[in-house]
Specification:
two-stranded antiparallel sheet, three-stranded antiparallel β-sheet, Glycosyltransferase, single chain, about 50% helix, about 500 residues, mainly alpha
Length: about 500
């Protein structure tokens, strides 16, 4: 009889997440970043098939730009998405760090610091110059070469004052400010260093307004890969919001309030990612509105409420598309970046609703935090294998995951095993090989399936098979929530079992 009641409890407790090992998923989502490291690798490097790379980055400009992350399966360091990745990793620690097992919180902070250390180097010449990229993407993309072997020119792309770079400088400011909050308790001195440099980066972004990719000197290097497609205004407000949270200073509240109209904050743009911060900005600013301290910023909460309502299928304002299997879908490549960022915001907003005892009103529909968490959980479960083809889109999680991801280091023999140099074109045999990648990039989340839930395990189809840092970063926070939730469920099931004896 007690077995029947346990099954009944599991069926109706809205607990599909009990079938997944979220702690394992969290651990692996953080471990992935070690496989993306550039520079001198530490002795405790766990992704052992990787080795030092990019050790002369910055040398052509006489500056040290070693370190940081390769953004995806190539060997270029694009600061715009790297800064966003760092912001999201830091936000994950800020919002959900208390839910992480202690060892994983430490690992998450290490991942944040690998990005923030590099970003500090990128702003070392402010107020005169900000470095925005290392590596020639055209030459790099014409090679299939391990990062340890790369011999393409490591071109340094920089923006000199008074040329504008509001987007990349603003996102760098946000990343450094968020990281300063994440490190406040662990390393106060480092936190203060991050904050000072965040303020300097924001001053450059605000003083020289405009998109960095509009600069003719660098446009051919950053476009079409990480151009500013959606405008620089959101990054200015995004940076100001993070600086407000890091400093508590009223100046940034005034900035957000007074610039909201002119910089488009009230535009209800339902996007969030490395190029478009509007939805994230509205959610972030809403925290202070929920806490009752900043009613003047109510318009941001209104926009955040509206965004959340678009995500709820039963809402009269719902307009997000889903695949037949239930994945949030937006046209274009690397679709899982949308699922991970959007559901991260759902979980953050659910926290704000819960802590302030608020609900969300979508027409006549009243939505509580549990609804947002349930919808977010479905997206996480889809990624981990609850989908029509039963494939985990996280490499190394479960028994069935992508074997031929679009990633140079993963698909080539490790330098530990094959120490001989592999040339630019010499790696083509590994790109074209039908064999699984020899090195497992544990934790990497690939671009994901198409709108029909189909996924071909094809290294050449980079839109589906290439992992990126900005897909993984939001997943760190999302997995943390469900690690804690699954523990709670286990306790509830145990108590129910005992009571039903």
């Amino acid at each position: 009889m007690k077995f029947f009641f346990v099954l009944l409890f599991l069926q109706f407790s809205d607990s599909a997440f009990c079938y997944h090992d979220y702690r394992d998923a969290l651990s692996k989502s953080i471990l992935f970043f070690e496989g993306q490291r550039s520079g001198f690798l530490p002795q405790d490097q766990r992704m052992a098939w990787r080795a030092d790379s990019g050790l002369r980055d910055g040398a052509e400009r006489g500056v040290d730009l070693t370190g940081g992350y390769y953004d995806a399966g190539d060997n270029v360091k694009f600061n715009f998405p790297m800064a966003f990745t760092t912001t999201m990793l830091a936000w994950s620690v800020i919002e959900f760090g208390e839910l992480m097992p202690p060892g994983e919180k430490r690992n998450a902070l290490v991942a944040v610091k690998w990005g923030s250390d590099y970003l500090l180097k990128s702003v070392s010449d402010l107020p005169n110059r900000i470095y925005v990229q290392v590596g020639d993407p055209i030459n790099d993309h014409n090679c299939w070469e391990r990062p340890e072997d790369m011999d393409t020119r490591r071109t340094v792309f920089a923006i000199n004052a008074p040329n504008p770079a509001s987007d990349v400088a603003g996102e760098t400011a946000a990343a450094l400010a968020a990281s300063s909050i994440a490190f406040q308790a662990a390393d106060y001195g480092y936190s203060e260093t991050l904050l000072r440099n965040a303020i300097r980066a924001f001053q450059y972004a605000d003083t020289y307004r405009g998109a960095y990719s509009d600069n003719s000197d660098i446009r051919d290097g950053v476009c079409p890969f990480y151009c500013d497609f959606d405008g620089y205004q959101d990054e200015l407000l995004w940076a100001a919001a993070w600086l407000r949270r890091a400093t508590g200073e009223g100046f940034y509240v005034d900035y957000i309030e007074s610039n909201g109209q002119t910089l488009g904050a009230t535009d209800n743009i339902n996007e969030f990612g490395w190029d478009n911060k509007h939805a994230g900005l509205n959610v972030l600013v809403s925290k202070e509105v929920f806490e009752g301290s900043m009613y003047s910023l109510q318009s941001y909460k209104v926009s955040a409420d509206s965004f959340m309502c678009t995500l709820i299928p039963e809402s009269p304002s719902s307009h997000v598309d889903f695949t037949p299997g239930g994945l949030i879908y937006k046209p274009g490549g690397s679709n899982l970046q949308h699922s991970t960022t959007i559901t991260f915001l759902m979980l953050v907003y659910a926290n704000y609703l819960h802590k302030s005892s608020h609900t969300l009103h979508c027409g006549d529909l009243t939505v509580g935090p549990a609804t947002l968490r349930r919808l977010a959980r479905k997206q996480v479960n889809y990624i981990l294998g609850d989908n029509p083809i039963g494939l985990s889109y996280m490499v190394g999680y479960s028994q069935k995951y992508p074997q031929r991801i679009h990633h140079r280091g993963s698909s080539s023999p490790s330098i530990r095993i094959h120490p001989n140099f592999i040339s630019c074109k010499g790696g083509s045999i590994y790109f074209n090989s039908p064999s699984p990648n020899p090195n497992v990039l544990v934790g990497a989340v690939v671009g994901g399936p198409g709108e029909d839930d189909r996924y071909e395990d094809d290294r050449a189809d980079f839109r589906k098979s290439e992992p990126t840092t900005y897909i993984n970063a939001p997943l760190v926070g999302r997995s943390s929530v469900f690690v804690n939730a699954s523990k709670t469920l286990e306790r509830q099931v145990l108590r129910f079992q005992l009571e039903s004896i």
